[in-house]
Structures are given as C-alpha cells and as structure tokens.
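Weekly structure sync - notes
Attendees: PM, LS, DV (DV joined late)
Agenda: review two folding runs queued last week.

Item 1: First target. Sequence and structure tokens pasted below for the record.
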Amino acid sequence: MSYFEKAVFFRKIVKQLAFILGPVLLLLLGRYFVDQNWSVQRLLFSGLLFAFLALVLNRWAATVVAIGLEGLLCQASWLKEGQTGEPLLARDLFEVSQGVSLASYLNWEMIAFSLLVACAVGVGVWKRPRFAWWRLALALLLPALLLIRIFDHGVLNKTSSSILAEHFKASYLSYNFIQNTRQNGLLVHLYQTAESVKLPSAGAHSFYTLGTLKTQQAIEPDVVLILCEACFTSLDDDHFITPIARLKQKGFSASMMLSPVYGGGTAEAEFEMLTGLSSAVLPGIDYQNYASSYRKDAATLVSRYKDAGYRTIGMHNFYGNFWKRSNIYPSFGFSSTRFVEEMSWKTRTWPDDGLLYDAALKAYAQGPAKGKTMLSLVTVMTHGNYTDRDYDGGMGDYNQRLNAAVKHLEKFVKQLEAQAKKRKRPLVIALIGDHKPSLTAAFYRKGVFDDHFFRSKGDRNDKFRFAYKLTPQQWRKRAEVPLFIKASRPDLAAGMIGNLAGKPMFCLPGELAQLLPKEDPFWGALSSLCARESDQLVPTQQVEWRKVFEPALFAERLF
C-alpha cells in the first residue's frame, strides 16, 4: 500500500471514529459542563435522553439538545430551590402554574440553553437520520422506564428501581429531595419523582359498602400516641427480646401490628397512623410527594379529635422539614407543633427522646383545667445506623440506645399519669414501633428471618437482599412491630389490643377514633374492615389495597 493510500485509509478511519465517538465525547463534555459530575447514574440517564432524541434528530444535534435540555432543567431547578427550598419535581413539568411562575424568574443561562435547544432541534430535524429498528429500540428505553414509573405500582417498578439502585448507584433518597438531586443528578431525580405526577381524582368509590362497626365506648379520654423510632421486641418468642419488652411489666398490654415499611420510611408508617389509609396505594412516600397538595382541612384522626374540641399537638425531636412534617401537620389538623429547633439539643448524636417527652409534659400541663388533649409524638433517639461492635451487627449499640429511650419513656408515662389523675381525665397511651430496625444480619442470626427471605446474604446488614417477592407469611413476619397500650381502665387497653392484634397499622387510628362520640362513616367502615381475620388483611401484594382504599377515597379525605 502506497503512502498516499495509507493516508487516505487513515483519514477514513479517523472520520469513522469521529462519526461514531464524536457525539459520545461531546455528550461527556457537556454532561460535565452541566453540573461538574460524571457519576454513573448521571451518565446513564444522559445517554438514555440522547438515545431518545437521536431517533428523530441528527446525532450531533441530539447531543446538543440533550445537553441543552439538562442544562435548562438544572437552571430551573436551582431557581426553584432558591425560591422555595425544594428542587424541581416531575409534577412541575406538567403543571402550567409552576411553569408560569418559573418563567417570571428567567435568567440569561436559561435563555441561552433554550436558544441552544431550539437551534439544535432545527438543524437536527433538517439533517435527520434514516429510520432504523436498532435506533428505535434504544429510543424506547427511556419512555418505557417512565411509563413503568408512572403507571405501574408492582413488580416492574420495584425491579427497575432495584436494578438502578444496585447496579447504577441510583438509590432514591425519598426523604430529602435536595439530597437526592445532589446524589443522583436532576434527570434521575425527575424520573424518580415521576411516580407522583398524577394526583388522586374525586369520584365514586365503594369504601362505605364495608358497613359500619362500633368497637369502643366513647369515653373521650386524653390520648397520647407515640410512634417509636425503630422500636422492636419479640412478644411471642424469645428470638429478639429488647429493653422495650419491659413495658409489659409496667401495666401495658401488648401485641404485634404490621408496619408498611422495614428498616426505614417512618413517614409511611406515620401516614397510616394519622389517616387510617394504606400507604401502599399512592406511589412513593406520601408525605414527601404530596405535602404541598394536601388540603388545609384534610380528614384525619387528628382533625377528628380537633373537631371534638381537643387541643391537637404534634411533636418530633428532629427538624420540622424532615419528611416535611412542618408543612403537613397543620393540614392534618394539628393546632400546634413543636420540633427540635425549639428544644435544647446540644449533642452530636441523634436527639435525646427526653427532650421530646419534656416538651410534651409541658404542653400537656399548659392545657385548660377541663380541656381535652391529643398528643402525637414521633421519637428519633433510636434511629439507625447502628455501630457494629465485635461483629454484633449493631445490636449492642441498638440495645443501649433503646434502653436509654425506654427509661425516658417510663419516666414520661409516670409523670403524665400523675398529671391526668390530678386533672381527673381518663388517659390512653398507645405506643407503636414505626418499623423494625435496620438490623437484618442480627434478625437472620437470631432466627427471626430464615434463608428463604433473601436472594443474597452476607456478614453485614447492608449485604442482605430480600427476595423480590415475599410470600404473605414472610411479608407479615418482616412487617411485625410491637404495639403497647395503657389506659386508665385496663380492660379498655386489653380490648383495643385484642381488636388490633396482627392487623395493619392503619387499623390503629380506627380504634382510637371510636373513643369519640360523633359517628363518622369512614371510621365505622375502617373498623368493619379491620374486624376481619388478620390473614385476610395481608394481601398477596400490598398494592392490592388499591381495590379497597381507592384513589377517589384519598381525594375525598385528603386532597
């Protein structure tokens, strides 16, 4: 081959490489330009967006449009974050009011990205490629993921989320949207929040055909409802006995209930505890996704007590913006709230539960002499992670903190009962664990879970992976959390425990609602539902609760 032929051949190879790799290199450079990050999850979704656009646009133009769109969305998100403290959500892209609001704050970067996208689209359509089946297959990946995210609430959505989390490091930090955007990038964040694009619509539903049932005498007691962070103990065997079990020796009746979450996701348990609705119906974390959409007079257990003349007080010894409680509590009926910002938290550990109980006692004492009070307290002292000591999987740290938390609780209960007695007020105290602690390795070693619960195991908690599909019996075992009730009348506590044993957490507010005189068809129907045998209240898949708690019921009660 002559020198001239070699030169021609070399130029041809270079041209082909530039044709193939050029847009990829440009996409990589553009991706870094947008937010100075090349994390694998960001690269994946930038690539998926490029593949979608390359179906109808020239590949170079598709690259520029992908970079321009991501840059435009990032600018809009940073703008919204500066104005509201929250990043862009998928629902914002479909709400005209949000678009109009953001448009009034346009900056030069957004204008530049918009012009870049418009020009690139024009050139890309002019130089559009020929149709090819392989190009279509790649282009459909992103729409397929989005459609699954928006419309599927079962196995497909769970599997795709698991694959993205395990293989592309795209774990959904649903408790903090700003942190989720920082970790995963805006495109991944928009995909993840696409689950909440559709709000429940008003309409007919069949919930009230369940009938009505009255289970308790309306004695109108003061009520203290405690959602205890990661509080767990075995009740029917000795596999996993922890310090909170000693409440049974302090006059509490006890049984197991079923939490909708495991190892985290307190807000989902709290949602069921306050609303009497299943958290498995709406996609994602109900608090986080719909905080700004709940109506101001949402119908909840709290609003039922408020309408009955109670002071309704919500407290949590952590920040008010955590799970957006400071926004949600007023809508759910709390007349006053208090968070750790108003407590004397001075440690670098999770805040002490004593801070919460001291604030609760003070609030209770400040009530009118003949006034009625409902307190809802959410603890945090026993929040994970738990420090591993001598390969115990964190059990030592967990038990030590739980023991301290129970001591604070015992002191609180004693003082509260004394105040209630002085006021001559009947009292009901209900404490329930929000979920099992994230001690999977310890649960496995102690025989709470066996091999059949997992698709993979390891020597640490984070190495265990639950099976993609648990049987109803396995789900029940994983969901079990302890419920403790103490009342001025021991027979009342025993009766409530008997009605709630083995039932889903949304049954608890139904029982507490019965302590008030005014009849409400929702609470009567809920009690009728919860009167079924416990095995009938564990569906094959939790999403099947949509057939009972239809979206129209959510619209009626909350939106």
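Item 2: Second target, run right after the first with the same settings.
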Amino acid sequence: MKNAIPSISGLYRALALALLALLAACGGPNRPTALPSSDNGYLLTVPITASDTPERLAQRYGGEVIAWLEAQAILKLSSEAAAALQGSGASLQNTTLEPNATVRTPATALGFNSWTGGFNSWAGGFNSWAGGWNSWAGGTSTIPALPSENRFQFMLTKVPQAQALSRNFGQGIKVAVLDTGIDLAHPQFAGRLAPNYQHYDFVDWDAIPQEVAGSMYGHGTGVASLILQVAPRAAILPIRVLNGDGAGTVAGVISGIQHAMSMGAQVINVSLGTTVNDTALQLTINSATNQGIYIVASAGNTGDSNLTYPAAWANNGVNNHQFLVSVGSISSALAISLFSCRGPSLEFVAPGVLIAGAYPDNRFAYYTGTSFATPQVTGAIALALAETVNKASVGTYLEHSAVNLGISGVQRGLVNTVGLLQKAPDLQRKQAILVVGNTNLSAGDAAIRTRLESIGYTLTVRDDKASTASDATGRDLVLISGSVTPGDVSTKFNNVAVPVVVMHWDLFDEMRMTGSKSGDRNTQTGQTQVTLLNNTHPLAAGLPLYNSTIYSSSDALNWGKVASGAVSVASLTSDTTRSTLFGYDIGAAMQSGTAPARRVGFFPSSTGTTRLTNMGLHLLVAAITWAVSGN
C-alpha cells in the first residue's frame, strides 16, 4: 500500500515564512533561537569544500544528503536531528536551516467542481490512439493524428502546424515528469517511456512510479499524455514525488530534480508548487538551469497574483531565467482563466480548460487547471529541442515567438508552437509552390502567401501558363489559387505525388475530385457561411458543427459533389450535398482512380481569401496542414 505524506497547516506555513524572514535579517550564523514545528523534518543547506564528501557531511550534521550542487549540499534532517544540531553549538555559519515544506499539485481550479471529469474508454474515444503511438509508424501519415477533442485548442497554440514542419517530433529528447506518477501500463505510453531502470518513486522509494488511488489520481498521467500529444516521439521519464492526493515535500522535489538531471533529462515538467520561498529548492532549480535544463512550472490555481514556487521565480532576469518557464491557463476564447494565477512572474499561457488526455485504467478524461496548460509548453520546448542544435536558445525563441494577447498579468503571451520552431535558424522549412493567375500578386494571393509563410513554408510563385508538373518535384505542397485560368492549369498536377490544395471550382473535375457536369461543381455567390458536417476530421480545425461564418462580407464559395472516397467537412448552408471543404487521403477512391497524394478542395474564391474571418483562416491553415501532414 502506498503511504501518504501528511500535509502541513496554514499555521506551519506562516511559521516557515517567519523563519525565512528571520534568517535573512540576521546575517552571521543562520541559527534560529527555536525551531518551528515541522511534520516533514528540515532541510539544511551548507557550503561544500574540496575535501567534503556526502558521507562526511551526513556524519557532521546528522542528516541525509539529497543534493550535491556546485557550491552547496542539501541535507534532509529529521526533526530530532535538527533539534540536536540546533542545540549542539556546532557552527552554522553560511548555512540555511528551514522546514521541509509541503508541495502540492495546484488547488482545484476555481469555478470547476473537479479538476478532471468526463471519463471514457481510451479505445472508444481517441480513435487514432487506440493502439498507442506505435500504429502510426506504418500508416499513411508521417505523424500521429492529434485527438479531435483537443483540435481547436491546439490550433490556438499552432501545434498541428508545428508538427507539419517537424522532422523529429521530439525524438531524442527526454522529458522528466515530476508528479503523482503515471499509469505505466496505459497504451499511450507504449514505447514512449525512458528505460525502466531510470524511473523512480520518491514517495515509496522504489523504481515503480505508478499512480495510486487518491483525490489526485490521474494527475501525472494526464500531464505526461499532453506532453506526448505535442511531442509524440519524446521520451517520458516518470518520477513520482507526490502521493495519490497530490501532496509531497520540497525534499522529494529536490530529489526528483537531481534524479532527472542524473538521468539526462533535457526538460523537467513540474505541475506542482509550494507557497514557501524555499532556499534549497531555488538552489536546486538554479543548478539545473545552469546546466541548460529547461524547467516548466505551473503557476497555480488560486486566481490571484500569488504564483507558487518554482513558477514564482521565473522572469526574474537572473540565474539563466530563460530556462525556468512559468505557465498559466487561458480559455478557448483567449481570456485568462479565472482560476489561473497571474502577475509579474507569469510568462506564458496555454489552454487549460477541459483538455483531453490519458487517464489511468485505459481511459481518457478532460482536465482543467494550470497543471495541464503547463505540459503543452513543455511539449513545445521538447519539439523545438529536437529540431535545432541551438538548444540553449530555445527559451529565447519561446519568448520571442509568443503571441501577446494583451492580458494584464501575462508577461510574454500565448505559446506559439510553430513560431517557436521557426525561430531556429537551422529549421528545415517546408517547400510550397503557389500557382497563380499573375505573379504580380492580387490582394487575395498575397494573403495566401502571407499565411503560408507565417506557418513556416518557403514559397515559390508560379504563373499558371508557365507552370508544369515538374514544379511539384521536391516540394511539400502545391496550392492552386482561385485566380488561375483553369484552361492554363488543366490536368498538369493531376498525377503528382505531392499534396495539392485546389481553390478553383473549375479545376475540381480536372483533378478528378468531382464529376465534370455543371451540377457536379460550381460556385455560389453571396455567401458568408458554411455548414460544418464533420468536426472530428483535422480539416475542420476543431470548429463546432453547424454554420460557421467564414467571410467578413459576402463573396462566392467553391463547391463540388465528391466521390465516395472523399471526406466532406463543410458544405453550402443551403445544400449539404455540395461540399465546400473536402479531402482525399492517399490512396482514396476519387472520381476516377485513386489519390496519389492528399488532395483538398477548398472554398474561397480569388477575392474571398481577403475576407476570411478567424474561423475561415483556421480552416485555411487546417487545409494546408492536413494536406501536408495528415494532421
């Protein structure tokens, strides 16, 4: 049976803070006149010399060395040992003796009855994940499909676009998760964990960091799941430092960080915190960041400016601050979550309301809290680390790519995963060709170019008359604008083994996507909306079913009646048989033959691309991203 670590009271926290203030004010020997009570024992931070060893320090001070840093060692002392040391007359010059404070997962998110809910079977919900991540290696997609349940939130942080650019998907990056443990047998983690001998449980002191029953059951599993959703080839190193109720101690977290460092973790996720400004913990954090290890910490769920530590040390401008990252939560409407802490130390935000992730016992659940915004940023860092040799600069790239939402108390902004990757000068960008009616680009074609470049594509523009099928060679995407003259393009790109997005209705038949009769494809004028028919497919960008406003003012929509092998995602509002957004996957049956690569029929007219609303832009990016990556 797993043992719970008792929590401390509010009175103890006040005493601990008072002790820290006393030590700071005294100078000289840091010897309290009386020790505050502590259920968890004490931490002693001492300077080390060249002749010191862990064994000598343990014997000298009567405790256990839990961290050996650059210039200090940290010892864990029992209450009895601390009292004996305090009364022994031994010199405590330049040392710090402080209670071993309680660390917890963030409090229950304000306004939500529970931090998790909506449990479902894994196989019945996340269809593409039912067999774990191993199944995607042999499929037609180059990367695993993201769960539709998180599609819209991940479009906000531009995860699908980043994965479309990624070559490595986090491969070679080890991410330590310090938490309640994980469900080691969950199918999402099959083949995605660090070697078993590297795992550790600092609650029960064994090598099996398995989730156990308690009020926070599933917390660590959900956190690890979200990291893998963003960086699916990263290796998760599970380290249990909290019991089933989400409680632990600073000593446990320090031990966990030290273990993660010794096992070669490049990123450490800590969706937990303490209200105590603890010297020993800060020194340990500094030791990790001084070695270029990224530590990503949740801000806390009390809805005020009191970020928990270590997140509260972020953004301080010292001690390699770019390696310590604090994360809060926003809603899907891009507003700060009521429960999220905010203030001068809060750097980044990510969606943290009803985020779907793995849950123990072969299930998934919807999670809420800053704990679950945090691993999305951790995953983004892991994704970027695998794409660049400039690993020490990823923190700076993260800062410079964030989207400023204008939210008071958020210093950097919304994490922008594709922007983060693009900041790396050695990123291998995708190559696209844009076929247009005139290389002196119209406003509509200029808008397409801008959008493609914003999500990481290097673009080559080709005139419709001069374009040839060989233009597609070596490209990742062909996009045919609505400004072309159909007869000048005709069947040129019909059989290219490269994804093609077609934005002219009169080429749908030439590309074998529809029939050739007038009733098989055409254009409908005076439109502002489409009807979403299928919001589980990546082409839907996670938007809700039914009518979506995609133009700011009325314009024409392309439509076609598709073959049986197509997936129809959107249609005219007046006729659901007339598809305005549809796709053929590789090998799917088309009007004749099968698709040699993905094909997408997309609705904007040549002028409509200048009128796209945010929803319309989401669908444009989704069309490009799915065509290239299947995600």
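Discussion on item 2: The two ends are 42 Å apart (CA to CA).
Action: LS to circulate a short write-up before next sync.
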